[in-house]
Design a protein that fits this description.
heterodimer; A: alpha+beta; Dna Ligase, domain 1; Nucleotidyltransferase, domain 5; 5-stranded mixed beta sheet; 18 strands; globular; B: alpha/beta; Ubiquitin-like (UB roll); 3 domains; 9 helices; 12 strands
Amino acid sequence: MNFAACDIHRAMRSRLSQGIRRGRLAVLDIGSSKITCLILKIDQGKLEAGGSDQVSSTLLAAAEVVGDCTVQSRGVKRGEVIDMDAAARSVRRAVLGAERAAHPRIDRVDHVLVSFSGGRPESFSTVGETETETGQVTGRDISNALGNAPEPPIGPGRQVLHCQPVEISLDFQSGLTDPRGMTGRVLSIASHVVAVDARPLANLMECIRQCDLDLCGIVSAPYAAGLSALVEDEQRTGAICIDMGGSSTGLSVFLRDHLICAEQIRYGGQHVTGDIAGGLMMRHALAERIKCVHGGVVPTQADDREMIDAPRLGEEDAPEPRQISRGMLIGVIRPRIEETFRMVQSRLIELGIGAMPGCSVVLTGAACQLPGLDEVVTRLLGRRPRIGRPLRLAGLRSGLTGPEYAAAVGLAMYALSPHDELWDFEVPRPVHGRGRAGEMLRWLRTAW
Amino acid sequence: MRTVSERSAGPSRLAYRLRRAWAQAWLRNIALVYAPVTALALAGWAVVSTDRLRLAIEAEVAGVVERIVARPEFLVRGVAVEGAAPGLEAVLRAVVGPVRGQSSLRLDLDGLRQEIESLGEVASAALFYDGAGLLTIRVVERVPAALWRDPDGRLWVIDDTGVVISGAGPRASHPELPLMIGPGAPDRVAEIERLMAAAPDLMPRLRAFVRLGARRWDLVLDRGLTIKLPETGAERALAGAMALHFGEELFKRDLAVIDLRLPERPALRLAPRDEQEEMMRRQVDLVLGEDT
């Protein structure tokens, strides 16, 4: 892997630790239909006492949500910025709203961690091997192993979003979490790389820059949703988190506490609304409302008798509005949902996860609240899904515990215990001069 | 094309920057506390340090104050005196005379009260201003208790605490008041009142109480009789003398001095005989013999 390409991530990491040192951090979940901003108060002392490998209760106690704000998202589609000014205004509104709602009052928050749900994420795996220098594994050996891994074929115009070491083995001893100090000859590290389109990512960073915020990191939205919605055991034994948002559906697969796959399907709840509005000739806002109130996926016998007021486009004020049966509504909604989950299914089969045993399916995102969705998922994916609600953080209002806030809360958890990424390790450096002088020079460099 | 107004879409970049800048505590403090305080202090210093400006401001303020003070609503229109005899009332009206027509805002009630109380006739005074132009003076007069002849021979009326009320005319103008003579006498008005109470029958004959050596009393009666009282137990001694008088008509006798200074040994001194009277007595003795 090429360490030099990760300079931007390295800079964001140092800003993240700076924000944690200051004790104030905002997380921004920029979705296609809503933008959620949470402001976290972080107690650094507790954070260090909590350790760094697992999301433990002490770790969660280190952070408290002091303010939150959710605003309608404008200028964002499929998780990507399509109107820079409108998107920046929405983000500013969310940040100002959260700052104003903050209790206890805070001056302002400068550091922000952002989710990214678009950019057609693609997962790669790459394995690097190295011989240990001294027989005992050091940080340099890990860096060398990571550096020796071949560059995955991410393609032109794409950029690495995550690069996480997921499998570390030492002389065929696999499943290590931290090999430093262990004795062995051959160290091999398998990394999971998530690559996204570079241009939407750059647009997102520009959008944050226009809000005068210090970007502390960009996290894949389905990954963040999985972090908060999956319980620890699910992450270990294997789980699929399907984050069904406004205009895209994210997919993240966890195994042995690591993200092993992140995908995006470019359909979401707003497409369903569009189908209703187009298919039944209704106003968009009205279609959204009918979807939320009467929507469903599974037809029942009572559906044909349940009539819903659905005025035709342009006839909203007519004395007798047109009525449709719920069966008709379901007939419009169901094909889109089925199509979406067939795509999920085929994507999972492509990845070879379709046959993974003991793998639970967790639905998050606002669109997953459609009644009957679980039946479709059960039929198509062969597993009964559950609705994943975000883990409770201290200070989180009860209004923010729905599945649509899983990504925002997951971002907060990522901020507390970020997974090791490639850019958390030292850049492997060719050893210049052997001998004491070179060693001292190297020591001085690493110390400062 | 945007279907919503820009305002509802969110704040512009400039508005956002201003809001976030304002969110910083130090900037808020500077703008709201330090800058105004400094500006005020500088303006104040400019006024104080420039004589012309300061004098003009002071004159202007004084003019405004004067106009307010001189308004007819604040004038004192009348003075009412309560509890004073007509003579004293005239004196009081003369004292507070300048107050009439003055502004009540300039009224120095305490000073007036002290001025009134410095008059001998006034024991205490209370002044009220009712807010509608009437100044009420309520005084308690001093009650004359005795006359006092000072070492220079002038007569004064004093009250029971020994305070001089006024100068007295001739003795005959105050026949009801006892006369006291001698230094330190005015402080002892209570004592002579007790003595008078001890010997009420003697009072019509009494001419004066004479304080001797600022120590003890002499009672001077008519016909040149002097009763010398002891320093302590004067009332008891006088009461004893009165008992003698009731038994033996002591005071009707022709005595010059009744000396009670030693209570257990009262002494009498006869009045010096008139030459003519002595001669007549001798002649009567010669004619009638010793036994008459």
